[in-house]
UniProtKB/TrEMBL annotation:
<dbReference type="Pfam" id="PF00398">
    <property type="entry name" value="RrnaAD"/>
</dbReference>
<dbReference type="InterPro" id="IPR020596">
    <property type="entry name" value="rRNA_Ade_Mease_Trfase_CS"/>
</dbReference>
<dbReference type="InterPro" id="IPR029063">
    <property type="entry name" value="SAM-dependent_MTases_sf"/>
</dbReference>
<keyword id="KW-0949">S-adenosyl-L-methionine</keyword>
<keyword id="KW-0698">rRNA processing</keyword>
<feature type="binding site">
    <location>
        <position position="81"/>
    </location>
    <ligand>
        <name>S-adenosyl-L-methionine</name>
    </ligand>
</feature>
<dbReference type="InterPro" id="IPR001737">
    <property type="entry name" value="KsgA/Erm"/>
</dbReference>
<protein>
    <recommendedName>
        <fullName>Ribosomal RNA small subunit methyltransferase A</fullName>
        <ecNumber>2.1.1.182</ecNumber>
    </recommendedName>
</protein>
<feature type="binding site">
    <location>
        <position position="129"/>
    </location>
    <ligand>
        <name>S-adenosyl-L-methionine</name>
    </ligand>
</feature>
<keyword id="KW-0963">Cytoplasm</keyword>
<dbReference type="GO" id="GO:0052908">
    <property type="term" value="F:16S rRNA (adenine(1518)-N(6)/adenine(1519)-N(6))-dimethyltransferase activity"/>
</dbReference>
<dbReference type="GO" id="GO:0005829">
    <property type="term" value="C:cytosol"/>
</dbReference>
<comment type="function">
    <text>Specifically dimethylates two adjacent adenosines (A1518 and A1519) in the loop of a conserved hairpin near the 3'-end of 16S rRNA in the 30S particle. May play a critical role in biogenesis of 30S subunits.</text>
</comment>
<comment type="similarity">
    <text>Belongs to the class I-like SAM-binding methyltransferase superfamily. rRNA adenine N(6)-methyltransferase family. RsmA subfamily.</text>
</comment>
<dbReference type="InterPro" id="IPR023165">
    <property type="entry name" value="rRNA_Ade_diMease-like_C"/>
</dbReference>
<dbReference type="InterPro" id="IPR011530">
    <property type="entry name" value="rRNA_adenine_dimethylase"/>
</dbReference>
<dbReference type="GO" id="GO:0003723">
    <property type="term" value="F:RNA binding"/>
</dbReference>
Amino acid sequence: MTSPTPDALLGPADIRELAAALGVRPTKQRGQNFVIDANTVRRIVRTAGVRPDDVVVEVGPGLGSLTLALLEAADRVTAVEIDDVLAAALPATVAARMPERAERFALVHSDAMHITELPGPAPTALVANLPYNVAVPVLLHMLEHFPGIERTLVMVQAEVADRLAAPPGSKVYGVPSVKANWYAEVKRAGAIGRNVFWPAPNVDSGLVSLVRRTEPLKTSASRREVFAVVDAAFAQRRKTLRAALAGWAGSAAAAETALVAAGVSPQARGESLTVEEFARIAEHKEPGQQ
């Protein structure tokens, strides 16, 4: 592998120059905050454990700060970008700053929520600075549709990072925590300061690491069935599960029957349950109930 030139990564002046040339102004609507610090993107790549044989998918590459750092370390990188101007410009940025790696880069101009396949070899890792307003749905969509993704590292709003990595019993444990845990072992992997972004956001950011389960959760219930229980339990999180799951089960009595059969107290609340317990509840739903 040819080593990239030392100054291949983008610094603050490069980012502003690129943005000005493209007429790009970061938009709140898309949650755009561009990383302007080369040390930060290299740290993200190191924390992600990107290997020379990895095929990395990146969602929301923006102007290419993280993309270039990923190309330094991975075998190939596929970036998914929804923005017309940014998608059009990124291949040229890669070709100009890292010509020896350009053939290892592919761009998919699309909404990540609509992607179910990617060009080239299947991705083995997902590394991304996700816009806070779509971070959780995009993450769960990618984990569902690309089972070859073994390792994920995403940079998200600190509050979202806390939710994703929260253990049962935590005040912020909820739907994102359980659903992420269906796929992977999830943990916080560091904090990111506001000053590495342009424009600087008014919220802190955090890194979340997800390592896919080597074996899927042992359950006879489908992912859809388990997620239906999770959604019902947290839709009314202050209620006991007997009450919260009444609609899902068909009645409070039917919910109680399923809970007892699953070994879960009908008086418990969703925030105290593991993903395995939610799966057991799904297994004991009475046939015929929607």
